[in-house]
Amino acid sequence: MKTAKNAGFTLIEVMIVVAIIAIIASIAYPSYLDSVRRSNRADAMASLNNVAQQMQRCYTLNNTFTDCPSVGTSVSAEQFYEIEVAVTGGGTGFTATATADQAPQTGDDDCLSFTLDNLGRRTSTTDGECW
């Protein structure tokens, strides 16, 4: 008599596949998060450039940065960063700073904050390759 052979997977085979998937996921997920954080940095850069344009327009009209409506605290367009604009030099300059305010950007240790001033100087937390 011929016996029918059971088709299917053994528990060991399934566990090996699960272990391989877990190893691949543990490598891929941090890389994915890093990619998302780097792409979200554009929110800070765009918001700071927008604020700088508004401040320069205001300076053109009023010959001072003191009375500009952009001075103070606001939130970036995608709401990942808090934008703070401060007047410096008695109204002759400004400094705009974007600080990470929402996940996943709060985990971006290399680039937690970006700064742009009236002279166009761009700095960041580590002065690395954030900009």
Give the spatial strand order of the biggest sheet: 1-2-3-4-5
The chain-level mean pLDDT equals 91
Largest sheet geometry: 5 strands, antiparallel
- Taking the alpha carbons of the first and last residues, their distance comes to 75 Å
Structural class: alpha+beta
Would you identify the regions where 5 or more consecutive residues have pLDDT less than 50?
none
Instruction: State the helical fraction.
Output: 25-40%
User: Any idea how many domains?
Assistant: 1
Q: Based on DSSP secondary structure assignment, what is the total number of beta strands?
A: 5
Query: SSE order in H/E notation?
Result: HEEEEE
**How much β-strand is present in the residues?**
15-25%
- How large, in whole angstroms, is the Cα Rg? 25 Å
Number of helical regions? 1
Task: Tell me what the structure shows.
This protein is α+β, with helices and mostly antiparallel strands. The protein has one domain (11-124). It has one helix at residues 11-62; strands at residues 72-75, 81-88, 93-100, 113-117, 122-124. A 5-stranded antiparallel sheet has the order 1-2-3-4-5, with helices on one face. It is rod-shaped, with a radius of gyration of 25 Å. The N and C termini lie far apart (75 Å). The model has no long low-confidence stretch (mean pLDDT 91).
